[in-house]
């Protein structure tokens, strides 16, 4: 059963009781991410996330680690483009401790000057590590090229220049301006009673007030183009993509099936053709990155530089095919069952259920039941997938990003015809 309560100060609390499990996962979500940052302070949300584990008024960073380890629990956080989340997973008997620990980190972190400088070095190393991992780095390059000057295109971790510029005063001011009641969702799933959860969090978070001003960003725009970033690598890494739908779009189920058929699994068209039949790549897949008002569908492949043209042509051919030929009944049914199965299997863990609760609140403002989701897939037809393919696969929004050795002969944007 899912319950939702809005506290007096506007904080939303959602929970789902799962009596069959021993654990409970609880997360504090703030609906402000890297897309709400200016260019000069890109990475501030991620920097704050790191600092929240470096000590509070009553707990050192070692105390925090020892307390969660002592009960076999998990304590962590992650930053996205539209939110940041701090979460804990513990046995249900330790929920009181987990809530107190999360609240202490969230409300009372000290932001010690020495810790800020140490963590700044850690984040600069994280940036370097990302740039040394080409099959990760290329996705940031793709976002930069696809979203152009929009904040969605900037790296979540920031740049060396922006991270170096962040002062303690600015970090505290940014936290104060975004970690406020109407930006906060507290989500919990597992062996948890909703009323007991409300009693735990209400007093701890009652001091938080509303945001003084609400951060907004412009609707992102995108064009088409080809970008080659030179790096001395054994493989050529490429991302070829186009626009996709926002998180809450009415036709999102068609987009999920479209992605599953194109490159979203081992049985997908691209995996079978590029890897299994022709042996052109070890890794090839497609994915959808959806946001509140926009999205992108991206195909990634790592291949030999001399096979680039073949791989690109196969990707374009499969995109054209989705526009011209409706899915077979077998393909459509298989994609539906695959996605339904993935969702059901993912919800066997309390942490995934907690994330689902929070994301539903972020993007829909309400709970999306499994029955609603399964019905959404059932309503998809081969014709509706083909119609969406014709809309999304357009030269006007097609972007190609390549990461590899210098001297590459680039295809022109006009040659990427679908």
Would you state the CATH class of the largest domain? Alpha Beta
What CATH architecture of the largest domain would you give? Answer: 2-Layer Sandwich
Summarize the helix and strand pattern as letters: EEEHHEEHHHHHEHEEHHEEHHHHHE
Number of β-strand runs: 11
Report mean pLDDT, rounded to a whole number: 95
Q: What helical percentage do the residues reach?
A: 40-55%
CATH superfamily of the largest domain, please? Metalloenzyme, LuxS/M16 peptidase-like
Q: Which topology of the largest domain does CATH recognise? A: Cytochrome Bc1 Complex, Chain A, domain 1
Proportion of residues in β-strands: 15-25%
Question: What is this entry, summarized?
Answer:
The chain has 418 residues and is of the alpha+beta class. It has 2 domains: 2-205, Cytochrome Bc1 Complex, Chain A, domain 1, CATH 3.30.830.10; 225-415, Cytochrome Bc1 Complex, Chain A, domain 1 (2-Layer Sandwich), CATH 3.30.830.10.
Structural features, described:
- The chain is of the alpha+beta class.
- The chain has two domains: 204 residues, Cytochrome Bc1 Complex, Chain A, domain 1 (2-Layer Sandwich), CATH 3.30.830; 191 residues, Metalloenzyme, LuxS/M16 peptidase-like (Cytochrome Bc1 Complex, Chain A, domain 1, 2-Layer Sandwich), CATH 3.30.830.10.
- It contains 15 helices and eleven strands.
- Strands 1-2-6-3-5-4 form a six-stranded mixed beta sheet, with helices on both faces. It has a five-stranded mixed beta sheet with strand order 7-11-8-10-9, with helices on both faces.
- Helix 1 crosses helix 7, helix 3 packs parallel to helix 8 and helix 9 packs across helix 12.
- The longest helix has 19 residues.
- The mean pLDDT is 95.
């Amino acid at each position: 059963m899912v319950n939702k309560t809005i506290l007096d100060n506007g904080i939303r609390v959602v929970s789902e009781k799962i009596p069959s499990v021993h654990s409970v996962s609880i997360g504090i979500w703030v609906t402000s991410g890297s897309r709400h940052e200016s260019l000069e302070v890109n990475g501030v949300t991620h920097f704050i996330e790191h600092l929240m584990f470096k000590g509070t008024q009553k707990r050192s960073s070692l105390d925090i680690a020892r307390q969660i380890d002592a009960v076999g629990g998990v304590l962590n956080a992650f930053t996205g483009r539209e939110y940041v989340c701090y979460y804990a997973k513990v046995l249900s008997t330790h929920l009181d401790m987990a809530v107190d620990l999360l609240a202490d980190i969230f409300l009372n972190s000290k932001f010690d000057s020495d810790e800020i400088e140490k963590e700044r070095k850690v984040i600069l190393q994280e940036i370097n590590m990302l740039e040394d991992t080409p099959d990760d780095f290329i996705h940031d390059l793709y976002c930069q090229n696809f979203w152009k000057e929009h904040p969605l295109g900037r790296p979540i971790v920031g740049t060396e220049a922006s991270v170096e510029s962040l002062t303690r005063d600015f970090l505290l001011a940014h936290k104060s301006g975004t970690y406020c009641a109407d930006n906060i969702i507290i989500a919990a799933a597992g062996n948890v009673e909703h009323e007991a959860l409300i009693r735990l969090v209400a007093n701890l978070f009652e001091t938080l007030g509303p945001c003084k001003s609400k951060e907004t960003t412009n609707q992102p725009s995108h064009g088409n183009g080809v970008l080659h970033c030179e790096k001395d690598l054994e493989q050529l890494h490429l991302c070829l993509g186009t626009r996709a739908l926002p998180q809450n779009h009415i036709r999102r189920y068609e987009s999920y099936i479209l992605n599953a058929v194109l490159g979203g699994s081992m049985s997908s068209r691209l995996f079978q053709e590029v890897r299994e039949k022709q042996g052109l790549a070890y890794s090839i897949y497609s994915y959808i990155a959806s946001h509140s008002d926009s999205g992108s569908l991206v195909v990634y492949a790592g291949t030999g530089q001399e096979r680039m043209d073949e791989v690109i042509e196969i990707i374009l051919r499969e995109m054209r095919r989705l526009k011209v030929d409706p899915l077979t009944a077998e393909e459509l049914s298989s994609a539906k069952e695959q996605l339904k199965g993935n969702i059901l299997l993912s919800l066997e863990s309390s942490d995934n259920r907690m994330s689902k609760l929070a994301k539903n609140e972020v993007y829909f403002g309400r709970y999306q039941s499994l029955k609603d989701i399964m019905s959404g897939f059932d309503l998809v037809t081969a014709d509706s997938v083909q119609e969406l393919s014709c809309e999304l696969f357009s030269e006007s929004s097609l972007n190609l990003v390549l990461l590899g050795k210098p001297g590459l002969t680039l295809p022109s944007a006009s040659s990427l015809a679908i």
